[in-house]
Design brief:
The protein is built from four helices and five strands. With 124 residues, it is an alpha/beta fold.
């Protein structure tokens, strides 16, 4: 299994990722760990390294859609993951910045979803 958990901030992506890691003994990668690199560099790094690792693994974070977009452009015939789980409902009130990040996630996912579906990725 190669699972990506993404969505709005404060929706439980990290908690769910850790729970699944512990239940299944899968590797877990968090895009939050790459924040010091900056948005563009972080998504490029993850696309070039994490998405090319054999499974099972989980990648979670807000930057995942940007990572996927870069992977799709760089590897036109490869399937980046098996499933994408989109977390939509925050557990607390978001700051304007966090709400903007969530809208960015939704926008990028909407843009790349047809190609992900074409490559056999399942959305949940």
């Amino acid at each position: 299994m190669r699972l990506i958990i993404t969505g709005y901030p404060r929706t439980g992506k990290t908690t769910l990722g850790r729970t699944l890691r512990d239940e299944h003994d899968w590797a877990l990668y968090s895009t939050d760990d790459l924040i010091p690199l900056g948005w563009s560099e972080a998504s490029a790094y993850a696309a070039a390294t994490w998405l090319t690792l054999p499974g099972p693994w989980i990648i979670e974070g807000v930057a995942a859609p940007r990572m996927l977009r870069k992977f799709l452009a760089a590897r036109p015939d490869e399937k980046p993951c098996d499933e994408i789980l989109l977390q939509r409902t925050p557990f607390e009130v978001l700051t304007p910045r966090q709400a903007g990040m969530g809208k960015g996630v939704a926008k990028v996912l909407e843009e790349i979803k047809p190609e992900l579906l074409r490559r056999g990725v399942v959305f949940r």
